[in-house]
Amino acid sequence: MNTLTAEQTLQVTRRFKAPRERVFAFFSSAESIQQWFGCGPPNVIECSADFRVGGSYRFSSYNPETAQGAVAVGEYLEITPPSKIVHSWKWEDDEDWVGIESLVTFEFRAIGDETELHLTHTGFPSEDSCQKHTYGWNGCVEKLEALLNGAPVPAIKPCS
User: Quick one: which of 58, 106, 57 has its CA closest to 82?
Assistant: First the structure.
């Protein structure tokens, strides 16, 4: 389920057939994040994550269709294992993001042996940016679901 509000906030909710600790673990290291981050084929070419409050992350991705790269950066603001992660978010070298830093919140709710992930991303520079991130985050969540299920990562059209 996706929700988009007038304040340029996106929300994605997905239920996984995996325990909360296992789902949370996919967010806690660069090696794990690199497996599911980015829409399109696995195209993260560099990933670093200092997974602690005050630590930073940097995800470099490449779109083979457009031959363009993009770098997302931010700081971990809250980490409450295994229930919540909050970090800032911005794109480097993107004029639309000059002076803009958005906020991403992941909440992990245990439902028996399953986990409900609730992702909220706020503070976009435009409605268009919010729509593109909705597509991107949904692609990430689909890839994460495949990894959790031991299935091949789905072929998702790259973000544009």
Answer: 106
The structure's pTM equals 0.90
Q: Distance from CA of residue 113 to its chain's centroid?
A: 23
Please give the Cα distance from 65 to 85 (Å, whole number): 32
The position carrying tokens 């911005």 is 90
CATH code for the domain of 57: 3.30.530.20
Examine residue 158 and state whether it is found in any structural domain, yes or no.
no
CA dist., res. 126 & res. 79, Å (int): 28
Q: Mean pLDDT in each 10-residue stretch from start to end of the chain (160 residues)? A: 61 98 97 86 83 97 80 97 98 92 97 98 95 92 94 66
Strands 84-91 and 102-111, sheet pairing: antiparallel
